[in-house]
Here is the input.
Amino acid sequence: MIRIAIVEDEEYYVNELNGYLEKYQKECGEEFEVTVYRDGDGITAKYRAQFDIILMDIQMKFMDGMSAAEEIRKQDSEVVIMFITNMTQYAIRGYEVNALDYILKPVSYFAFSQKLGRAIARIRKRGSRSITIPVKGGMIRLNVSDIYYIESVGHNLIFHSTTGNHMAAGTMKSIAEELTDASFSRGNKCYLINLEHVEGIRDKCAIVRGEALQISRPRMNDFMQELTQYWGDSK
Here is the structure.
């Protein structure tokens, strides 16, 4: 199931894009879940990193597509954004929000299907798992492989990642269960460490991106076994 949002204020193009998506599903055997928004503020108001692809009109009444994309990128670095416009000059600005492509109006099915296929290929190639975490003011989506380690502080979790540190309410037990099938190992009661980023072990600490994370005595044997197995499987 691929989750797609159409953000378009003109009824004609909403119907056309929906029709193209239905046709593509039949031709290519894909399964889409489609949600329609009539303006940029509609999708940003309660955005929860819930889509795989966003088909975004640029010229809309209340919030234009470029501004909406900028807001979405603050929470979601993974979603594929494709702009729909009749003005080619907007294509250059699309790079500012890491847009995959732009589709010129009037939209032909051939051009649409080619670009949609490219978007789906990116999703398939990415193939990596992501998690959505609640943060102050909303939600963000993190690629699991981008997380260095997770730290428990009081009733909160700090996700140390390639995109910075993100604090969310939660328990170490719940996040460990959610990531049980990923390459994470408990270093102690405060650290859940992504083995993908462990550079080595020194002085009873796991070295993660140059930072020394203490491994507790009860966890040392299990941690070393899990790390050794991960390194062996990664060869």
